[in-house]
C-alpha cells in the first residue's frame, strides 16, 4: 500500500480482546503477509500467530524497550520487509502507541494503524448489554485509576462518577475497594456493577453485583488482574424504547405511519 509516493511498511494492528477470531479481516490479512511481527506477548493471544507465513520473524515486546522495538522495526524497513506491530484490543486505548508513531514519523517511516475490537465492546457483548440506553445513559466513560501512570486530577474517578454515565474502568481491578469508594462519590450503593475477567478468552468470567457487594464477590473468585470494571444503570431493566424503531417517529428513511 502507498501513502503519497511512500510504500507502507509498518502496520500497527489491534488484535482484539483475546478471541483470535475477533481480529479484523484487514488485520488478519496483514499478519499473514508480515515478514516481521512484534506482538504484545503479555496480553495478545499467541494463537493469532499460528497462521503466519514460513520464516516470519516474531518478537515478543513484553520484555523489550521502546528503543529495541524501534530498532527491530527500522531494520525490517531498511531490509524491505513488512513489519506488523500487534497490540491487544484497539491500540488507541492504553496502547502506548503515540510514542511509537512519533518515533516512526521522526525516522520517516510510513505506517498505518488498523483498529481492533476493544475489550469494552467485547464486555458488552459478553454481558448482552447496551451501554447507551434511552432514558438511562447516552454517555460512556472509559477511564482508569492512577497507578504508575498518573491520571489528571480533573479526570478523577470521583469527578467522573458524578455524571452517573455508563463507565468502563481499565487496569484497576487490583484496586477494587479503593475504586468502589471513589465511585460512591457519584453512584449509589445499589448501582449495578460487573467485573469482566479475560473477556472472550477461554475461562472468561463475569462477576455481577452492586457497588455494595462487588468487592466480596470478586474476592471469592480470586480475580486481581486482566479485568474490566463496568458500572452503571444501563445494566438494569428500566429504560425507554428507541425512537429509531418507533412507528410514530419519522426520519429520513421511514415516514410516519398513517
What's this, in brief?
The chain has 258 residues and is α/β, with parallel strands linked by helices. The protein contains seven helices and twelve strands.
If you had to describe this structure to a student in words, what would you say it looks like?
This protein has 258 residues and is α/β, with parallel strands linked by helices. The protein is built from seven helices and twelve strands. It has helices at residues 25-33, 66-78, 98-106, 119-127, 157-161, 176-183, 214-221, and strands at residues 2-3, 6-7, 10-14, 36-39, 57-60, 83-87, 111-114, 140-144, 166-170, 192-197, 205-210, 227-231. 24% of the residues lie in helices and 21% in strands. The strands form three sheets. Strands 5-4-6-3-7 form a five-stranded parallel beta sheet, sandwiched between helices. It folds into two domains: 2-114, Tetrapyrrole methylase, N-terminal domain (Cobalt-precorrin-4 Transmethylase, domain 1, 3-Layer(aba) Sandwich), CATH 3.40.1010.10; 119-235, Methyltransferase, Cobalt-precorrin-4 Transmethylase, Domain 2. The chain starts with a strand and ends in a 27-residue tail after the last strand.
Amino acid at each position: 500500500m502507498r501513502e503519497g509516493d511512500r510504500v507502507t511498511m509498518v502496520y500497527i494492528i489491534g488484535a482484539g480482546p483475546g478471541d483470535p477470531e475477533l481480529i479484523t479481516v484487514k488485520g488478519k490479512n496483514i499478519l499473514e503477509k508480515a515478514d516481521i511481527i512484534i506482538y504484545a506477548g503479555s496480553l495478545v493471544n499467541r494463537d493469532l500467530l499460528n497462521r503466519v507465513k514460513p520464516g516470519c520473524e516474531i518478537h515478543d515486546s513484553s520484555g523489550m524497550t521502546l528503543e529495541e522495538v524501534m530498532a527491530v522495526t527500522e531494520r525490517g524497513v531498511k531490509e524491505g520487509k513488512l513489519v506488523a506491530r500487534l497490540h491487544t484490543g484497539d491500540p488507541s486505548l492504553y496502547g502506548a502507541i503515540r510514542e511509537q508513531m512519533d518515533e516512526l514519523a521522526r525516522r520517516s517511516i510510513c505506517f498505518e494503524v488498523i483498529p481492533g475490537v476493544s475489550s469494552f465492546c467485547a464486555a458488552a457483548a459478553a454481558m448482552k448489554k447496551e451501554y447507551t440506553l434511552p432514558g438511562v445513559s447516552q454517555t460512556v466513560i472509559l477511564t482508569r485509576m492512577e497507578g504508575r501512570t498518573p491520571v489528571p486530577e480533573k479526570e478523577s474517578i470521583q469527578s467522573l462518577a458524578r455524571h452517573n454515565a455508563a463507565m468502563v474502568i481499565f487496569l484497576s481491578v487490583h484496586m477494587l475497594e479503593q475504586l468502589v469508594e471513589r465511585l460512591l462519590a457519584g453512584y449509589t450503593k445499589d448501582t449495578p456493577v460487573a467485573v469482566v475477567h479475560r473477556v472472550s478468552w477461554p475461562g472468561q468470567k463475569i462477576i455481577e453485583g452492586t457497588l455494595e457487594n462487588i468487592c466480596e464477590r470478586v474476592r471469592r473468585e480470586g480475580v486481581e488482574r486482566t479485568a474490566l470494571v463496568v458500572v452503571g444503570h444501563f445494566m438494569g431493566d428500566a429504560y425507554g424504547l428507541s425512537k429509531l424503531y418507533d412507528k410514530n417517529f419519522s426520519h429520513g428513511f421511514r415516514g410516519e405511519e398513517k
